[in-house]
Amino acid sequence: SAGYTLGSDNVFRDPGGKPLNITIKSVTGWTDYTSILQIVEQELAAVGIKVTVQSEAYASWLQDQNTGNFQLMIDNFGYTSDPYQYYNQLLNGTVAPPLGKVDQFGDYGRFDDPKIDALLADIAGTQDPAQQKQDYYQIEHQVIADVPTIPLFAAQDESEFNGNHVKGYPTTDDPYSAPPIWLQPDEG
Q1: CA neighbor of 107 nearest in space, from 90, 94, 124, 120
Q2: Whole-model pTM?
Q3: Between vectors from CA 106 to CA 103 and to CA 107, what angle results, nearest 5°?
Q4: Over pLDDT 90: what percentage of the chain?
Q5: Which residues fall within 8 angstroms of residue 123, CB to CB, at 6 or more apart?
């Protein structure tokens, strides 16, 4: 419906003849992401979408992530048992700065939907799990419709600590942040 047609080279082209080409930024040397993107590249080529993988040094990639300078970017996100934290960091348009300004909160793509923001505020304002669940359902349906993030796989991250030496660490009873010390924006 956007006017794209499949060219003789099996790549979709817009009405002006420009190929449908998606650029995905990745960190140079992150071989697991390189392998994943090779699969993505092959699978999208099979449906007429050209993918260009742009590998960057970590500092450049991080600057591009934090300022929103990307079309698509592969990264990891989540690592918390609390869906509110995940959705709030990823989708809350009320805290995302404009493109070009540094965002270390998590809405790197500057997703902004007042309905999602209202649902997040509703979740934060109630302790009723049944109400929260209904709000989460609505958020999930909107994410499926708008695709501000594309989950590629599910993973987990384990953290161990000695409770005799460490106090106030995130737990399943108090999942206020992501436990991994390396994970932005909760780092260390």
Answers
A1: 90
A2: 0.79
A3: 80
A4: 65
A5: 84, 131, 132, 135, 136
